[in-house]
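Encode chain A's predicted structure.
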Amino acid sequence: MTTEFRNADQEVLKLLEECSELRNTLKTISAQLARIENRVKAAFPTAAKKLQERKTSSRQKVSSLTSDEALAEFDNVVKLASSGETREAESKLERRSAADLLIIAKEVGVSFPSNKPSIRAMREAILGKVRESMLLSRHSRRE
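Encoded structure for chain A:
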């Protein structure tokens, strides 16, 4: 296999060929994994069922907050941050579950580019709204 090419077109063709080979290899691996999973499920149906139940229960974590409670929680965090206790405000958000953070973020108008934002992204977005709220409240007091 030579690594030198006469021109850019030949290099591009070679790279596309390698991509195609990799794609076929990944398809083969995926098919083998599917066969192994099916054999495991057939051999150990109770263990497979427990694993499936565990996966679905972790996906269905629901927030315990209502929209009013989410807004009240946000207001509490803003009050803490406004009084200079920013670390306490951050830790208050860190103690919240992902589902609770998502509800709070949605209630204060944060939108995310993906359907499943990370916990860190949600916390940072909420803290951004907290800072925005603090700036707006300072500005309105001056007038």
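The chain has two domains: 8-59, 67-142.
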